[in-house]
Amino acid sequence: MKRIIALSGQKIEYSVEFKDIRHIIIKIDRALILKISAPKGVGIFQIEQFIYQKSKWIVSKLKMQEAQGGSKSELNFVSGEKVSLLGEIYPLEVISSKKKSAYLQNKTLYICVDDVENGELKKGVFKKFLYDQALFVYPKVLNNAFTVASRYGIEMPSLKIRFMKSRWGSCLPMKKIVTLSTHLIHFEDSLIEYVVMHELAHLRHANHSKDYYQFLTTLMPDWHERRERLNKLAGGIDLQE
Ligand SMILES: [Zn+2]
């Protein structure tokens, strides 16, 4: 039995299972759905009272899990799972269709494949979707950052987008190439912009010297806060740039 409850202004889905137990138990599964186990005979009113009592814990736990889901692509590609895109959370809906595609509609991310049980197939469609999103978003973010960097004599680099697991981005100053990871697409554009600016600053200083960081601070005074937020959302992983 699936129901919706409003907690701190958020609509949260939960399911209830009645079992031979003595107390109500709340769990949050990997798809960020509340799973309630309740003793037989307990009414919905009582269950919801219990959820309200635990709302602080639930909301903070959901936030944490959402943030972690943002960077890790350990999705099972089942309907109901949550995916983070540009900092927004979307539920996933897997649909059987002859034509492979993935798209956003009505705040839902649809993945359409002919074999809905085929995990590799769904992953492939999803990866292409992420890449296409990155292809659409990153040049705009680069242009924005470049309007600042160009004032300091930085030349426009060429942009590459790759599936990189261990780095958010990289820069080849001699060749003037900036490479960004597709995984960045999960985060708010201000955080993508931070990584872009980090790479643009390397066009002046190839290393991570004191001069480099001074220059980065000139380009983006609040880079430190952005980096902290990115690391936090990525589950505490401090990836190289
Ligand atoms: Zn760097």
Structure description:
- The mean pLDDT is 89.
- The protein contains 6 helices and 11 strands.
- With 241 residues, the protein is α/β, with parallel strands linked by helices.
- The protein has 3 domains: 2-66, no CATH class; 71-125, no CATH class; 129-233, Zincin-like, CATH 3.30.2010.10.
- Strands 1-2-4-3 form a 4-stranded mixed sheet, with helices on one face. A 4-stranded mixed sheet has the order 5-6-8-7.
- Strand 3 (25-28) and strand 4 form a beta hairpin.
- Residues 198, 202, 208, 241 line the site of zinc ion (ZN).
Secondary-structure topology with pairs:
Elements: E1 2-7, E2 10-19, E3 25-28, E4 34-39, H1 44-53, H2 55-71, E5 82-85, E6 88-96, E7 101-105, E8 108-113, H3 119-149, E9 158-162, E10 169-172, E11 177-181, H4 189-202, H5 210-219, H6 223-233
Parallel strand pairs: 2-4, 6-8, 9-11
Antiparallel strand pairs: 1-2, 3-4, 5-6, 7-8, 10-11
Helix pairs in contact: 3-4, 4-5, 4-6
Q: Catalogue the ligands.
A: zinc ion
Tell me, what is the CATH class of the largest domain? Alpha Beta
Number of DSSP strands? 11
* Proportion in β-strands: 25-35%
Put simply, the count of helices is 6
Number of domains: 3
The CATH architecture of the largest domain comes to 2-Layer Sandwich
Gyration radius from CA atoms, angstroms: 22 Å
Class inferred from helices and paired strands: alpha/beta
Task: Please mark out the parts with pLDDT under 50 across 5 or more consecutive residues, or reply none.
Answer: none
List the strand order in the largest sheet.
1-2-4-3
Helix content: 25-40%
Biggest sheet overview: 4 strands, mixed
How would you spell out the order of helices and strands? EEEEHHEEEEHEEEHHH
- What global shape is seen? elongated
Instruction: Note the gap between the termini.
Output: 46 Å
Question: What would the average pLDDT be, to the nearest integer?
Answer: 89
